[in-house]
Amino acid sequence: MTANIVALVLVALLYFPISSPVSALSSNYYDKTCPQLETKVTYAVQKAMMNDKTVPAGLLRMHFHDCFIRGCDASVLLASKGKNKAEKDGPPNVSLHAFYVIRNAKKDVEALCPGVVSCADILALAARDAVALSGGPTWDVPKGRKDGRISKANDTVQLPAPVSNISELQRNFSQRGLSMKDLVALSGGHTLGFAHCSSFQNRIHNFDATHDIDPTMNPSFAASLRSVCPMHNKVKKAGANLDPSPVAFDNAYYKMLLQGKSLFSSDQALLTVPKTKKLVSKFAASQKAFEKAFVRSMIKVSRISGAGQEIRLDCEVVN
Ligand code: HEM
Ligand SMILES: *[C@@H]1O[C@H](CO)[C@@H](O)[C@H](O)[C@H]1NC(C)=O
Ligand SMILES: *[C@@H]1O[C@H](CO)[C@@H](O)[C@H](O)[C@H]1NC(C)=O
Ligand SMILES: *[C@@H]1O[C@H](CO)[C@@H](O)[C@H](O)[C@H]1NC(C)=O
Ligand SMILES: *[C@@H]1O[C@H](CO)[C@@H](O)[C@H](O)[C@H]1NC(C)=O
């Protein structure tokens, strides 16, 4: 009997560790302390989008990156200091931009409710707004995250890589409590934005021992990518949009994927097992089904908790 109880407690501890993702976040967390928070964040995102159409992609990617490393604790926003190189200065940072949007939102929020709202919450809200303002779905963001004090460039090796295969992606996501369905739905984030040549170079030059180009890639699509990304590409900014409508949050990504017109091996990998392939077809056929799944999975990602303890006053520096 006692042994059974001990075993149960042990199992419970294994499944629900101290930093369980199911922490006390709530939709109405700031209702009393900062009622105008969401309006301010939306305004900052909207304003930035007027001058720069790439802002939504930047914010969505930034939130994903934040949550996948040390949980959603705004570690991605911290600047390098002294000898410590922050995430921001790690290798996959080519895709990080639009930090100023968070800085501006934080400034407006601090003016209204000083010391109350975490940078991690502002980033989660900004990512939601980025999707909604690009024509995608909107949702209630659970709030109450705390900001962390650690950010290391080397941690970014934990992000899934664009060359990952399906089993690597599955492992990467399941480590964070995310399923294969989450993987497929969240990969739909690639309906927004841009990738540099280096991120899909492996598929268009020296693919493997027998193919120069990934044979699963549509040949004319591959040819167009090779023309912007030659073998020894010297143009640092060269690359391609992730789908043909890179500022619209739609399901075109899945339609392109089914045609062999995705950029990354990690996108193509979703077609390599029946379970994920079926979901790709489902989302390609129905924007509604995609949106529903995307919202569910985004809320899950945004609940990955970190070890954050404070409300940072400046999102780039620990208190
Ligand atoms: C499944 C694993 C994933 C891999 C391997 C991956 C990989 C990448 C890579 C390599 C880039 C391009 C970087 C560059 O060359 O500039 C990129 C861009 C992007 N990713 Fe992902 N990603 C993944 C999942 C996600 C998720 C879950 C989201 C959000 C829901 C997301 C949203 C984006 C967005 C919006 C961009 C465009 C960024 C921009 O244009 O500024 N990705 N991703
Ligand atoms: C990326 O990292 C390099 C140094 O490693 C840094 O010079 C650059 O500013 C970083 N980019 C962003 C957007 O932070
Ligand atoms: C970088 O991170 C990896 C995996 O998280 C770890 O194995 C490695 O020791 C780290 N390297 C440094 C220099 O900290
Ligand atoms: C994925 O890659 C790993 C090595 O990185 C390999 O061990 C594994 O067999 C690969 N899985 C598939 C399904 O190709
Ligand atoms: C996630 O993928 C990256 C890049 O392939 C790898 O370095 C990291 O170890 C993976 N993490 C997990 C938990 O599988």
From TrEMBL:
Q: Which GO terms describe its molecular function?
A: heme binding; lactoperoxidase activity; metal ion binding
- Which principal EC class is assigned to this enzyme? oxidoreductase
Any signal peptide, and if so, which residues? 1-24
Where, in this chain's numbering, is Ca(2+) 1 bound? D66, G71, D73, S75, E87
Enzyme Commission number: 1.11.1.7
Q: Which residues form a coiled coil?
A: none
> Which GO annotations describe the biological process of this protein?
hydrogen peroxide catabolic process; response to oxidative stress
Q: Which residues bind heme b?
A: H190
The UniProt annotation places Ca(2+) 2 binding at T191, D243, D250
- Site keyed Transition state stabilizer: positions: R61
Q: Which CDD domains match?
A: secretory_peroxidase
Annotated localization: Secreted
Instruction: Write down the PANTHER family for this protein, in alphabetical order.
Output: PEROXIDASE 25-RELATED
What name is this protein filed under?
Peroxidase
